[in-house]
Amino acid sequence: MFLAMNRFRVLPGSEAAFEEAWRARDGRLGEMPGFVEFHLLRGPSSDGHTLYASHTIWRDEAAFQAWTTSEQFRSVHRSAGERKVLYDGHPELETFTDVEGV
Amino acid sequence: MFLAMNRFRVLPGSEAAFEEAWRARDGRLGEMPGFVEFHLLRGPSSDGHTLYASHTIWRDEAAFQAWTTSEQFRSVHRSAGERKVLYDGHPELETFTDVEGV
Residues of chain A whose C-beta is under 8 A from some C-beta in B? Predict the structure, then answer.
């Protein structure tokens, strides 16, 4: 299990636009070899923002890295600039590997 | 989908003890109604620590809340104090709900 989470601090009033932008995108993740599962998650609201996280599970790190250099990745990030969403700072990517699980 | 992540900043040299403590615990999460899946994840190393996260998926927030007041929860956290692990700060709990997914 390889988990890529991108953390977004969305400013008050931009939450609905942020969620709508994700619903409207054409991510095409399902076309990528090694893609397992994607969720957009809403986290806690505090300190003047709401934390959101994209939560994508890949078979392994190689599958994730292949996606970051794919045409699908470039395509979906080209349209990201059109979003009318205000953020507190830049998104923060964190990746995780499985130590153990049940 | 309801995700509870507890973030641990483990100091250099304590990583193996931290992982071993999780392997050795008797979490009994599988006994809890609404429990879906647990993983211990290792994240990036930077700024003098390695980020780990417990990553537990519950059917819904009510199932998670029921666990936090259960005998299983008290039991597993009683033994947490015995761990010979050094942290940078306290663990940080973040919970997330599903906005959308594929």
Answer: 1, 3, 19, 22-23, 27, 29-30, 37-44, 51-53, 55, 94-102
pTM for the complete prediction? 0.90
The full length of chain B comes to: 102
Q: Å from A98 to nearest chain B CA?
A: 5
Domain residues for the domain of B72 are 2-89
Q: What is the CATH number of the domain that holds A84?
A: 3.30.70.100
pLDDT in tens, A84-93: 789 999 999 9
Q: Is the pLDDT of residue A79 over 70?
A: no
Q: What is the mean pLDDT of residues B71-80?
A: 81
* Residue with token string 């003047």: A48
Nearest Cα residue to B42 out of B3, B81, B10, B88: B10
Number of domains in chain A: 1
